[in-house]
Every structure is written in C-alpha cells, then in structure tokens.
C-alpha cells in the first residue's frame, strides 16, 4: 500500500517513504541516531558531516548519501543541527510513533532484555512479559508482572503491542511466532537460531548470538597481527568512540 510522505520537520522537505530507503542505509541511520543521542546528552548543537561520519564509523560521502534519503539536511560549511537531524531520522525509522513491545520467554536472556533501560530512550516501551513456566508466571520483573503465554493473543490487543520478541527455548519458538501472528503483530524479533515460518506480511528479524561469536572467532583466527583499540573521534571537547565494525556485523549495546 502506498502511503503519503511523512510530514516535514521544521519546514524541511518531506521525508521519502521508508520503503524507498535501502536496508543498508536504514541500518546506518540507526547508528547515526545512536551517535546523535550521545551528542544531545553532551549538549552538542551542531555537528559536521566529517565528525558525525567518523564517530559512526563510515565515510563522510556515504553519510551524506544516506542522509540525502531524508531530504535536504544541514548547511554547507556549518553542519547539521543535532536535534533536527535526530528528529528526522526518528521519523524515517518510525520511532516518532513509539512502539509497544511484548516479550515471550522470561528466562535469563528474557529478564536481561526486559531490564534493559536503553529501549525506552530509543522509542520502545516494554509493555508485556509472558512465559509458560508456573514458577515464572506471576513473578515481578521490573515494573511488569509475568503473565501466562495463553493470555498472549488477547493481551497483545489490549496492550496495543506492535513488536513481539521471542526469547524462548528453540522448540517453543515456532508456536510463539504463530501466536504473535494470530495476535496481529507484523514485527517479530527472535533470539532463537531456528528458522521460523511466518507470513510474507510479517517482518521477522533473527539474532543468533552463536553465529555472531563464530564470525568473531573466524576473524580473530584470520587476523594474526594484534588489533588496535577502536579509535576515538573528537567532537568539540568530547571524545566519542568509533562504532565502525571490524570485519563484519556487530550487535551494538
């Protein structure tokens, strides 16, 4: 379905539809947003493309091309308004609407995810926790109480959930995915290495920590020379660690 372009921010040109932005650019926009968040906390008002690119671990030409998908940004010779650029990226990523997240599987990983405070700062609100283990159902985790997974479908409607996270044992992951689909969720993040079957209209992302560590192991074995620590890029009077991945993908904290 073709929608209307997102409204402009502070009089700037409308943001193109997110489906027109390449997936690789979307991933980098999330990185730029994280760096801009750090700059906002430090009181930075203006950042140059070179400084933002270096802190994000990309070339300045690639950064400018990525940001061109959002419409005109910045002033030549001056730089980017940090607050305005942050708002435009949030709008492009759909974060300005906010997302309500339900998590199924409250084991060690699930509890760690439920307790992570960074979600709220990035537009995600954890609204429901679910499990099938009688020892966990009814237990408090942070501000939430674990509910039985049998309540999941009804609860998703009540909570107006938009994203479902699966952190269950592998053998239960497909059943949970089916429940989330029946509940009407169109976005699912799974921490199970099992390949899950979902309809085409559902966006599924899978995080396999073992695979990420295997990639790290391969790269470590290949690189016999010592690897220097990540360079620090100075922005104003503060140093921001470079987030450039070495030899592949990383899962940023």
Automatic annotation (TrEMBL):
Keywords: Cytoplasm, DNA-binding, NAD, Repressor, Transcription, Transcription regulation. It comes from the Bacteria. GO terms for molecular function: DNA binding; DNA-binding transcription factor activity. The keyword DNA-binding applies. Residues 94-195 form the CoA-binding domain. Residues 31-70 bind DNA. It is found in: Cytoplasm. Belongs to the transcriptional regulatory Rex family. Homodimer. Modulates transcription in response to changes in cellular NADH/NAD(+) redox state. This is Redox-sensing transcriptional repressor Rex. It comes from Rhodococcus wratislaviensis NBRC 100605.
């Amino acid at each position: 379905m073709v929608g209307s372009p997102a409204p402009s921010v502070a009089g700037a040109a409308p943001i193109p539809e997110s489906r027109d932005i390449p997936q690789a650019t979307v991933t980098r926009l999330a990185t730029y947003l994280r760096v801009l968040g750090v700059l906002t906390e430090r009181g930075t008002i203006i950042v140059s493309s070179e400084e933002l690119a270096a802190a994000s671990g990309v070339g300045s030409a690639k950064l400018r091309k990525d940001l061109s998908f959002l419409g005109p940004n910045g002033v030549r010779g001056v730089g980017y308004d940090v607050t305005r650029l942050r708002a435009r990226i949030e709008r492009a990523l759909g974060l300005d609407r906010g997302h309500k997240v339900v998590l199924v599987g409250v084991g060690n990983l699930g509890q760690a995810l439920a307790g992570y405070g960074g979600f709220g700062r990035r537009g995600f609100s954890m609204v429901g926790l679910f499990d099938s283990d009688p020892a966990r159902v009814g237990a408090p985790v942070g501000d939430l109480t674990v509910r039985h997974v049998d309540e999941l479908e009804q609860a998703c409607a009540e909570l107006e959930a938009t994203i479902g996270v699966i952190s269950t044992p592998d053998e239960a992951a497909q059943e949970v995915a089916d429940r989330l689909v029946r509940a009407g969720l169109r976005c699912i993040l799974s921490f199970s290495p099992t390949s899950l079957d979902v309809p085409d209209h559902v966006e599924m992302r899978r995080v396999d920590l073992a695979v990420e560590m295997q990639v790290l192991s391969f790269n470590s074995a290949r690189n016999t020379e010592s690897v220097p620590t990540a360079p620090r890029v100075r922005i104003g009077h503060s140093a921001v660690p470079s987030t450039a991945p070495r030899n592949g993908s990383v899962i940023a904290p």
